[in-house]
Amino acid sequence: MQTELRSCAACGEPISDRFFLEVGGCSWHAHCLRCCMCMCPLDRQQSCYIRERQVYCKADYSKSFGAKCSKCCRGISASDWVRRARDLVFHLACFACDQCGRQLSTGEQFALMDDRVLCKAHYLETVEGGTTSSD
């Protein structure tokens, strides 16, 4: 019985191994499936991620493409509590006035000026001080 050999998406060599990996519609030698950033082997991982034909481990995918806090620039995980303002996302603790540092509460009025969060008092102070940009 003749079997058709598949080519590995990474090295291009035929796959004659008994076991191979199928990821993103492509076939891989087990030892060739590696994260494109850290080069860690992915053959024993439960999952991997593909974006623009590049394969990533979970950690590097999150670092590269995951949501990041608009204040501290650290990653936001699915279990984090967040605040949203327009298209910006903040950790709950990071949603604070850029002027005084006070954390803002749910329902409290605030303003965004040049993607900076201001409490109502500091927004009014800025506007009365002659700043022309406002939200």
Automatic annotation (TrEMBL):
One of the record's GO cellular component terms: nucleus
LIM zinc-binding domain span: 6-67, 68-129
Annotated signal sequence range: none
Keyword Magnesium among record annotations: no
InterPro entries, sorted: LIM_Homeobox_TF, Znf_LIM
Domain of life: Eukaryota
Subcellular location: Nucleus
Keyword Ligase belongs to the record: no
Entries under Pfam families matching the protein: LIM
Protein name stated in the entry: Awh
Annotated source species: Drosophila busckii
